[in-house]
Amino acid sequence: MTAVAAKGPGAPFLHVAVGVVVRQQQVLLSLRASHQHQGGKWEFPGGKVEGAETVLAALGRELQEELAIRIEQASPLMQIRHQYPEREVLLDIWLVEAFSGEPKGMEGQQVAWFDISQLHTLVFPDANQPIVARLQSLFT
């Protein structure tokens, strides 16, 4: 991901569409490559919102590019603003309750289904912690 707009000197701002892809009591996660920002941590898939793109359009594009799946049913879940030392992010998080296709890491990333009740055992970027808490309150 790259900066969308500068937020002060040297502090890039990213608007990110995030998909919480669920089936029964499981959620689909991707492992960030070690060379990426927050590398080596599990994350909910998605990516930056481009230009005048809607959040849902950005999420659909990102899930198709990253996982080869198409959204069939999704609804807004929450928004999170988080300040990392090197950037600020606005996460627009959507609950993806129905999709078509079989998820696979189209960019070479590892993807896996995890039981929602076990998410606390995984390492996530700091900005993802409120998503984990919300999922565990909704599904467990």
From TrEMBL:
Q: Does the keyword Transmembrane helix apply?
A: no
Domain named Nudix hydrolase: residues: 11-139
Q: Kindly report, in one word, the top-level EC class recorded for this enzyme.
A: hydrolase
CDD domains on file: NUDIX_MutT_NudA_like (cd03425)
Record's Pfam families? NUDIX_4 (PF14815)
| Lineage top rank: taxon | Bacteria
* InterPro entries the UniProt entry points to: Mutator_MutT, MutT-like, MutY_C, NUDIX_hydrolase-like_dom_sf, NUDIX_hydrolase_dom
Under Enzyme Commission nomenclature, its number is: 3.6.1.55
Q: Which reaction does it catalyse?
A: 8-oxo-GTP + H2O = 8-oxo-GMP + diphosphate + H(+); 8-oxo-dGTP + H2O = 8-oxo-dGMP + diphosphate + H(+)
Cofactor dependence is on: Mg(2+)
UniProt similarity note: Belongs to the Nudix hydrolase family.
Tell me the protein's name: 8-oxo-dGTP diphosphatase
Organism, as annotated: Alkalimonas cellulosilytica
Give the gene name.
mutT
